[in-house]
Amino acid sequence: MENTSFGEAVEILNSLDNIKKEIRIKFKKITDQEFLVFSTIYQMEEQGIVDYHSLSQKLNLTETSIRDYIGKLIKKGIPVEKTKLNNKLVQLSISKNLRKIAPFPVIFQLREI
Questions:
Q1: How buried is residue 6: exposed, middle or buried, by Cβ count under 10 Å (0-12/13-18/19+)?
Q2: Strand locations in 1-113, DSSP E?
């Protein structure tokens, strides 16, 4: 029984290592500017709704640039989610699963490795 639990624990740890490696690889492929957009969404989301307009104001970029960066992040497999509110406003958010697996300081640290 004890060996089974130990084996399962090792399997879970290996799985977590693989997830961290995958996150590191994905975040190393994005540019510094794309990472800035991602990290700003991550941080602003904790204070309320993030949309193209609020993000463009915060980063002093055009909404067109923000849309472009969001598209690039999604294309590169970064879990940024777009949700339409009231059939008009597009809310931007970071996947709750990513937040559970890797808080922002962990993502930042993995990217630096």
A1: exposed
A2: 50-51, 80-85, 89-94
Eight-state DSSP code of residue 48: S
Number of domains in the chain: 1
Span 52-98, pLDDT tens digits: 999 999 999 999 999 999 999 999 999 999 999 888 899 999 999 99
- The whole domain housing 67 covers 2-112
Least Cα distance to 112 among 24, 33, 45, 26 occurs for: 24
Q: What percent of the chain has pLDDT over 90?
A: 58
Q: How many CB atoms lie within 10 A of CB 28?
A: 12
Indicate the DSSP class of residue 88. Answer: T
Distance CA 94, CA 75 (A): 14
